Amino acid sequence: MKRQTIRDVAAAAGVSTATVSRTLAPDKTGRVSEDTRRLVFSVVESLGYRTNHAARSLKTRSTRTIAIVAPELANDFFMDLAEGMEGELDAHGYTLLIASSANSGEEEKKRLSVLADRMVDGMVVIPAGARGAHLKALAGRGVPVVLVDRLVEGVDLDAVLSDNEAGAFELTRALLADGYRRIAFVGGDITISTARERLSGFGRALAEGGIRPEPDWIRLGGMGVEDGYRGMDAILKFRRRPEALVAVNLLVHLGMERRLLEQNQRFWEKEAMVIAGFDETVYTPFLPACRYTAAQDAVGMGKQAVQRLLERIALKKNAAGPEAAEETIGGQIIRLPVKIIRHHSESFLKSRSLSRNFSFGKAASDSGWKSGP
Amino acid sequence: MKRQTIRDVAAAAGVSTATVSRTLAPDKTGRVSEDTRRLVFSVVESLGYRTNHAARSLKTRSTRTIAIVAPELANDFFMDLAEGMEGELDAHGYTLLIASSANSGEEEKKRLSVLADRMVDGMVVIPAGARGAHLKALAGRGVPVVLVDRLVEGVDLDAVLSDNEAGAFELTRALLADGYRRIAFVGGDITISTARERLSGFGRALAEGGIRPEPDWIRLGGMGVEDGYRGMDAILKFRRRPEALVAVNLLVHLGMERRLLEQNQRFWEKEAMVIAGFDETVYTPFLPACRYTAAQDAVGMGKQAVQRLLERIALKKNAAGPEAAEETIGGQIIRLPVKIIRHHSESFLKSRSLSRNFSFGKAASDSGWKSGP
DNA sequence: CTGTTAGCGCCTTCAG
DNA sequence: CTGAAGGCGCTAACAG
Asked: Which of A99, A262, A348 is nearest residue B86 as measured by Cβ atoms?
């Protein structure tokens, strides 16, 4: 049985192809009488007609496809983001294309260009580098772009971010409230907006607590596991050590925990160090030193990003004038709050007094943001 | 500046559109002289021409796009798989579409159909359910499909799987070699091929070690965190308990560890229980009871799946005859070995004698399969 | 090796 | 509200 076309449907229904087309248009524009509508649908059904999206795209210059480009795919935050996006897109009849920029600005540029050629209707980008000329160029070419997670210098595109400053602030304040006074900050590539904002929140909390930051305890560097490992290593070598540490992100946090694991475990019992970091996952309850996490709403960010994007796409279609391009580039920034979650930390090594914190599904699933275990 | 077409290029280069088309064809079929090739490319460059994929697809009935459908996106195994696929696809000029079946066979059916309508050239599916009539139907419709991770009853499609039986066998044997004799198996939905295979490997190792399996210690049930939690809970209630446990997968393993965390930690020291499970991630070194993991090569599976798929696609194009469909459905099964990784287990709570096992990057990054921290 | 030509399937004015 | 007709940009014969 050959693949049916709109003509076959038209013939079988005794109407014109135009009518069929109008009936099947995804953006319910041209109106069709209720009777013919039903007729067409029934014929479509019985013939097993499926619209040919390539042909439609050729005509409409729209693919109902949007792309997400991230520095790497194998990453918790990113996958939650994708999950959020997919859900939202699905509801609007869009499909999600996915690509990795392999943590390289160059690669990102290439992938973006390939995707633009595929005529995606829009793109969500987690920027890989600090430079963003190509992003601006893309937007100039008329492809709606929304940034997620990070801002890029000199590019005023729409962006969906966590409230990093507030997150780091709350995290640090929670440590202060627990009585910790000697607090370090580990990791952070200062060219990345996320790191700058978090460091700034950390500083504000200390200041508000009347504590002078100790320069030795601010171990900037990078955003990877190794950076956390090295930062912790450096800190352990000091005679005077902090009692608590704020990790700039999950990877750094992991590196720090790794380094701590190598230390004789007795160390914790005698001289406990606790960590507060970003991102809550199913695994964070198992990180021995983890006391607080600031859970980002990655799924929500994905939804928001898609909503912004679809908005832009609609705008662009309606405004065909020359001011359209201008309209398409404005940079609206959306900040989503993070949620502070308390963890067991070293206490589980001493008693089970806090064991409620792990009772099944508590920490991870009650965050309300992940579907949970 | 309007978007250039192949005609503009042809005109500017003083050749026909057919020549330009042949020069730009992705599958280097029609040959073109080296001179004209260079000429065309230079004009393409200077005009900033970009091929219109919608038009090409309309003609060729191929989108150079393949899709991956998984039960959920936020999942370590899946992310690595996608990463492997993306890398391999990129090298062949393909793009990756991604969709979640939300752990539902019904939903899977819908997504598959939508994607087929988008004319993807092929699909990689991690089946959500035990039934697969729609998968067979898809393949019948001429869409190449490769299964990953699980087999589906009565559907003989190509599949890329881990060697689950051998993995569970090795895992169990490692425990036996360490001197453990009382070994349990937790989790496993017997309708899922993966679970059956792993349970079978477990049984074989026990048999080979001359050990009679204890029925109480085989806690089948499901494949989620809760199932692991409940399985462990049941086991802790027995007067006679196992010394070691094999977890059917990572989620179950996590649930088990969770349950153990709730137990007073002294429990481990006096009466240690160790766990062997599937999947190695950056986090497994932090699971207190984890002694061995069988690391699946998810990235490699992604690559293999894509290779199979591209092979099928090529086959289909060349064989236009009626036997083509037949050819397209055969079910070749590829098994990738897993790698057993030893972890610290409870020892880190007692001494640092095994601390080398965590030395930075050892367990996770020396697996050679992940890019590592 | 290159040019000519006829659509691929759908959308979208423009009339009716 | 519905029909007729002209492409969208590219490729695949078929000639030359």
From this structure: A99
